[in-house]
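Expect chain and fold; thus:
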Amino acid sequence: MIKLVAIDLDGTLLTSEKEISTRNKEVLAQAKVAGVKVVLCTGRPLAAIEGYLETLGLCDDGDYSITFNGGLVQKNDTGEIIEKNLMPLEDIHILHELAKTLNVPLDILSDGTVLQLPVSEDHISLYSQLNNLLTFEPVELAQMTTDRIYNKAVVAIDEEYLDEQIKKIPSEFYERYEVIKTRSNLLEFMPKGITKAYGISLLAKDLGIKQEEIMTIGDEENDLPMIEYAGLGVAMENAVASVKALADVITDTNDNDGVAKAVEKFVLEPLKGGN
């Protein structure tokens, strides 16, 4: 039986209009009532998903989210961090130099604040357009101190230019960091080994849930580790080819209640059969 469902947001739970459909909301509510842990698993900070958590009724004691692509595991009701893995200031300096070399903007996520570094004079960051619920703060590299939290670094820029610059990233960066596109125009750098699967595994251990009792649902490259990790990995019909190839099953698209259909079939129906 599935006891935990970890769900990506963009392209998965959310429609193309960035909304949660009525059917998805109702089915996930049924899963929660049945005792299944419904966990949003996202690259965003908690502050950027609070509205979705409220819509889903996931703000009670015992509700959790995986944020920053597995960097944090948090309680939804209080924001308390129960598991974390952060990026040291040294890495910010290294990634700043890379951004200068590639002539791309660089934003650093620090909890719910986005620290905007003035790296490229030719290209401005698009990150504020992608996450307008966050607080944005221009900052100089020299102002960044070791006592501040740094979760991840992102490059948000035109897709075509981004793809060209990605080709120029030296191999050693892939050895040192998790480097992955989470959207067509967004590249993220995380500490090595920090993935959605990592965050889910920590939460599962804390809750006493086995790997085979976990279902994950996603659509993008950053969902690959959790799709592979779970007892049942589900890809959206609109997922990228690599995710669909790795998944155990493929559900409908994000605009056709794919999450609800997967949860009904693989979570709720088996529970009814067990009664």
Notes: The domain at 89-191 is CATH 3.30.1240.10 (Hypothetical Protein, Haloacid Dehalogenase-like Hydrolase; Chain: A; domain 2). The CA atoms of residues 100 and 127 lie 18 Å apart. The chain is about 35% helix and 25% strand. The chain has a mean pLDDT of 95.
